[in-house]
Amino acid sequence: MTDPTVQPAALGQRAGFLPGVDPDRMPAPTDIALPVLGAKLLTSADGAVARVGDLPADTRWTPVGTLDGVPAWATDLTDAVAFPGRARRWASLAAEVPEPLATLAGRALAVTTWRRTHRWCGACRAELADQPGEISRRCPDCGLYVPMQLSVAVLTAITRPGRAGSPDELLLVRHATGPTRLWALVAGFVEAGETLEAAVHREVGEEVGLTVEEVAYHGSQPWAISGPGVLLAGFTARAADRHAEPVVDGRELTEARWFGLDALPAELPPAYSISRWLIDATVTAGLR
Fold this sequence. Notes:
- The protein is an alpha+beta fold and 288 residues long.
- The chain contains four helices and 16 strands.
- The radius of gyration is 22 Å and the shape is globular.
């Protein structure tokens, strides 16, 4: 999904990805197009990003943001006839393209999926109407306001001191579903009424039976693999008991082990994921 025509901000425009487009602007033929087909995004056959002019003139567009100042638009297709390109899941795109473009593609997938699955009022069953300039809808009959919602999950890089003369150790786990061969971090969704930090403590206790301290926020990443509208919040933490061993819950996890920071397994999360960013940052800080 290379994009030779999108240039960095040159005339005072902010570089990178920004959500939102001028609501008074109409799509231009050279604007970025992100056609969505089910749970996949379409690129041209050679993997290049599509343009608005590549699709039929009567295509219905939803603004999703700008990339280096160039407006980007998403459209929800029922078949690939309108744009016979290459259908790809977000993970395959994110592994190949720069981070701002991966984020933009994830937003396009999230917005179109939300619009497809939120057409009717949950209170009175009337058809919802779009709110101008927003990714939201309102019921024309009862007034119910329906904004696009995010599901937040936390993941935590847990360390403990290594043996005398050895580097710190990092806890890695294998999940029962998804990419089961990878060694990843403890993670889980935040519950209603729960802070992010409280979710860290609860998930770590539930999944591996450990107590942690020194919980610190590291960063976040929109994540289109776990479902549209998911935001991952990454943390670091220290095991409260340096001698405690993990006990997996048997439902979400199949294995959990301590690894020396200088002896991590090869089967780690992909480079575009916040899980890998956390692991790499932990290794860098621990081996200084």
